[in-house]
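Email to the structure team, subject: Haloacid dehalogenase model.

Hi all, the expression group asked for a predicted structure before they design truncation constructs. Nothing fancy, just the tokens so they can compare against earlier work. One-line instruction: predict Haloacid dehalogenase, return tokens.
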Amino acid sequence: MPLRLALFDCDGTLVDSQHAIVAAMEAGFAAHGLVPPPARDVRRVVGLPLVQAVATLSPGLAAEAHEAISEAYKAAFYRNRLAGTHPEPLFDGVVEALDALEAAGFVLGIATGKSRRGLDATLAHHGLAPRFVTLQTSDRVAGKPSPDMVFAALAESGANAADTVVIGDTSFDILMARNARVRSIGVSWGYHDGAELLAAGADLLVHEYSALPSAVTGLLVKD
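Reply from the structure team: attached below.
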């Protein structure tokens, strides 16, 4: 049997980090005397590289301001993590789904808009770090919807594109998968709605983690 890879997004797919992200974004804008964007708009850009997300939220500002807000965001996120004020809980059923996929012979990976420092902290908090054979972050590889994180994950894991499925909650995840020519599954519990994920090209949409292992396996046996 060929090596098969299940490549997960993190924010909105594995963990519910919206409150931590919104709080850090509010602090990042406020640090520069700016009115923070609405929480709903912040949730819309989760998954993009940080500077790109800030630029999307504030297109009228100069690039230097986007960089400065991003740095203030990172500082606020780190402070909040140390203080424990905005936890990033796992969604219900994550561990059981990972167990089932590993039992079915999959290796696991992550492709996320988080920084590597942030991803490492999240995985360590939940005791998940040993589960993943490849960790791709947008501070080291071009971010979504570029296919580069998928390509890097394939190279690091040894999997082929035909034996890989991306699992994510935003259209950025699905477009990344399409650009890399791998299959994708949208999850409806995250930050973009299911109709949008299907419109972006998701092969399937699942509504709970218990349905995910069979959905992933099914995509790769259709051929």
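The mean pLDDT is 95. The radius of gyration is 17 Å. Ping us if the truncation boundaries need rechecking.
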